[in-house]
Amino acid sequence: QVQLVESGGGSVQSGGSLRLSCAASGRTFWRYTMAWFHQAPGKEREFVAHISGTGYSTYYADSVKGRFTISRDNAKNTVYLQMNSLKPEDTAVYYCAAGGVYTTRNIDYPYWGQGTQVTVSS
User: Fold this and answer.
1) Residue 80 and residue 60: Cα distance in Å, rounded?
2) What's the confidence (pLDDT) of residue 50?
3) Contact 61, 46 (CB under 8 A)
4) For 57-91, how does the pLDDT look when each residue is reduced to its tens digit (9 = 90+)?
5) What pLDDT does 3 receive?
6) What is the chain's alpha carbon radius of gyration, rounded to the nearest angstrom?
7) Burial class (CB in 10 A: 0-12, 13-18, 19+), 35
8) How far apart are the first and last CA of the chain?
């Protein structure tokens, strides 16, 4: 079992930055692929980015490529999402997820955080 707790959400103006954090419980954090998804009101949960257990491999949705950076610190059991050049369309609840497969499909991630709201105003 892995428990995930996100933090760092908030409200910013267009062009601003936020850094999300996700703290995980347990001693096997390094084994998990970690991912960020987001869900806007009335829309399905969508993949944002993921990172392999070692941190050597990352992958991004086209909509955030070049603006967002995912990273992890296995010594601190924490994964981060640095979000720069934020746009109003980035407004959503952002969820952290952990899984054993390097995938963009939300159904492949068994562990989820409670989510943190990000609001970007124009």
Assistant:
1) 14
2) 98
3) yes
4) 999 999 999 999 999 999 999 999 999 999 999 99
5) 96
6) 13
7) buried
8) 40
87-91 long-range contacts, CB within 8 A, separation 24+: 87/14, 87/120, 88/14, 88/120, 88/121, 88/122, 89/63, 89/120, 90/38, 90/64, 90/118, 90/120, 91/40, 91/118, 91/119, 91/120
CA separation for the pair 64, 98 (Å, rounded): 20
Please report, as a single letter, which amino acid is at residue 117. Answer: Q
The yes-or-no verdict on residue 27 having pLDDT over 90 is no
Q: Which residues does 108 contact at the CB level (< 8 Å), separation at least 6?
A: 99, 101
User: Within 13 Å of residue 30, how many CA atoms lie on the same side as its CB?
Assistant: 7
